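Q: Hi! First time doing this. I have a protein sequence and I read that you can turn it into a structure. Is that right? Here it is:
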Amino acid sequence: MASLDSSLLSILGDRTAEVLDENLGLKTISDLLRHYPRRYVIRGELTDIESLIEGEEVTIFAKVESSKVKRIPGRKSAILETVVTDGRAKLTLTFFNQAWREKELRPGRQGLFAGKVGLFKGKRQLAHPDYLLIPEGDDVDQAIGDFAGKFLPVYPATAKMPSWKIAKCVRLALDALDEITEYLPEELLSEFNYPKISEAFRQVHQPDSAESAELARQRLTFDEALLMQLFLVLRRYEVRAAKTTSRAPIKDGVLAAFDKRLPFELTAGQNQVWSEIVKDLSSDHPMYRLLQGDVGSGKTIIALRAMLSVVDSGGQAALLAPTEVLAQQHYRNFLSLLGELAEEGMIGGDERGIQIRLLTGSTAQAQRREVLAAISSGQAGITIGTHALLGESVNFKDLGLIVIDEQHRFGVEQRDALRDKAREPAHVLVMTATPIPRTVAMTIFGDLDVSTLKDMPLGRSPITTHVVSQSSKPDHLTRAWQRACEEVSNTNQVYVVAPRISADDESDLQRFGLTPDELILAKNLIDEEDSSSLKLAMSSVEELYPMLTGDVMKDLRVGKLHGRLPSEEKEAVMQAFVRHELDVLVTTTVIEVGVDVANATMMIIMNAERFGVSQLHQLRGRIGRGVSPGLCLFVSSASEDSPAMARLRAVAASTDGFELSRLDLQERSEGDVLGSAQSGARSHLRLLRVIRDEELIAQARLVAENLLSQDPTLAANPELAKAVEKLRQEERAAYLEKR
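A: Yes, that's right. Below is the predicted 3D structure, encoded as structure tokens:
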């Protein structure tokens, strides 16, 4: 018999186990059983073809009516078109470069066909569908029954591992599994009327009824919430139990001198947050705080003051940024704000001055050696950098404060990697410009105290946003370019944002799930007048730049910026825009965060439907940072009644980041919400949805706090303690794999 930790190789063939690992990342029986069905199809109630809706994931039972191979002139490749029917309506199955399937998809064969419904020339079709043919001569009902039981689970699948193959693997796993040791306390099972874990796994994959499937799913979702909260609360206890050096501000240090230089007063919100941070820094326990605030709310000033307080105490501070552009922006901004206070050892520098250093992946070798020496000697009071700060060669003399900007780009592991460089527990301040609803903060940042900046600094200008629909009003784009030229004539500057760098980016391939060869074949088969449904032309920097400079903006100073440019060129372009040596900057989302050009008043975002709510809001926050009002245009080719257009209108109608964050989280997948770097513990969230399951998360937090208040080590619940420890180990292992 097998356990949850047993390898899939122990119950499946080598090739099947290999495909599950390579395609779905499933290595153990636990991984497979936590690959949950996304829905169920009831035998005898399969979707009929006539009712299919475009964009819907369907599974139908149908009969092959015909199969025909279309050869491409001048090419060896071909397309197979198979027509299936349910007796009332027909559906086309399209396979690119897979003519060999014609032999098995013969007229008269019956089977289950699954995929996403598309429309081509007004006809419904499935491209590259999964299918399971019923063996010829067998009783059809019996064959389906043997395969699916009453409920057919539909799993997230791949071309090499379709849903029904996953179902067979799950059945083998359940049959081979020993009784699973229950880890939830009996009183919790009774209180919430949950099934035991063994029964929950069986019912979620092979339900007796819709009700039993739902109850099993509730139990497994609660497990995810509770284990996460136990993990975070325990982490919180451990951090706060540690001892460290107080870094309270001193009376006549560099912080006091900096405050005298500030040309503005802090807002009431900034003062409130600062009082919370000062209390933490003054303690002999390390600060572990999240500072969240909308775009432009003044988080950076608060972070800089905290760093100066630590430098005053004789320690060092490090700021970790996700991109070179943002790290360089912080570096220049700090130098500007501090002036002579950042010129220690230089003629004209203040006697209380400090050194600020920058370290990124592209820092030249000679300069890198100099920066590393300044860090290790303690001369560098503040070091700003990217992931380069995590390298083994970076050694601080006395790291007292770690600031992590745009926290969603990093994981807990990166925080810990920097904390490991301190000789004693360092204070930690993480920042995010993506406002976070309470239960999201509770789930993602449950080990942190949370401070929130809600008011905006005085002097920020309002931003007006409009949606420019190319589908209904194509001439409005011409007007948008004219409006940009007018903005420049008023001595202002403009951003033009594109979703990709060049025309050969693979965005189309990702959308359609085709290989490059298949995409070429598909485009060759589509008449020019019908090509818009596949081409979905997307703007790119490399296409927009010559178009604009050769036409509507030929008399303007236009620059281009994207992630593939050499670091020196990126820096030169950005600085030229900052110095107003450029009027227009055609760019990708590399300017999404941190870029602060007060004279930039207009932004045109091309193919705005390609961006998420949070990204649009972040991009829009790059304008209106000076005295002149901002104008943002979302250019989109989405249809008027599409969800994408509704999303754009919602963002255009509000500049409230907290309101938009809920809309954002409702639309994005959990993996996107938690961030790709939020691995380890957070990767076990298969069912939990932070907006949908708000009540469950709050409930799990209370349960976790109650359990740990009575039993801080979970000694009375050893199986539960093992489950939490497993999360801790997974997190650590995930981090080590990335290094």
